[in-house]
Specification:
148 residues; alpha+beta; four-stranded mixed β-sheet; 4 helices; 4 strands; globular
């Protein structure tokens, strides 16, 4: 992902992250907007050039179809990757691009010696949950709530 692509992505992604926190009921919009901006700044102080983080733009025949953001951390059992963001252009969803991007990411992680890939998904995003389960991811934690 180029620096220009990153700048465009970040503005949209930060707002999308906040919207997802609100939609999931995690927090009200003012707090979600603040948390999203804070999380992005903490995780990516140097933007696309932040060490330990890599961004890819996915293309099909020269057309941009999606993106992936992975962070890498060395742990006692080896290199771990975490998928911070993954998206397919909305009008191109359900055409196999998500599966192809995930498969390419897994291949790249294996080549780098990554021993585990993790990710988070909001509870309301059943489409993403289904794709991740089909790709072999398993649930490690479930957070629940009840509005009173």
């Amino acid at each position: 992902m180029s620096a220009d692509q990153y700048r465009a992505y970040r503005a949209i992604a930060e707002r999308s992250y906040a919207d997802n926190m609100v939609k999931s009921g995690t927090m009200p919009e003012p707090e979600a907007l603040h948390k999203a901006a804070e999380d992005f700044e903490r995780l990516l102080p140097h933007g696309v050039d932040t060490a330990g983080h890599e961004f890819w733009t996915a293309f099909d025949d020269g057309e941009e179809v999606g993106m992936l953001w992975l962070g890498f951390t060395e742990k006692s059992d080896g290199l771990h990757a975490f998928g911070y963001d993954f998206l397919v252009t909305s009008e191109l969803r359900r055409q196999g691009y998500g599966r192809a991007i995930m498969a390419a990411a897994e291949h790249m992680c294996r080549e780098r010696g990554v021993v585990e890939v993790g990710l988070s998904v909001f509870g309301f995003n059943s489409g993403a949950q289904s794709l991740y389960e089909q790709m072999g991811f398993e649930v490690t934690t479930v957070q629940m709530r009840k509005r009173v």
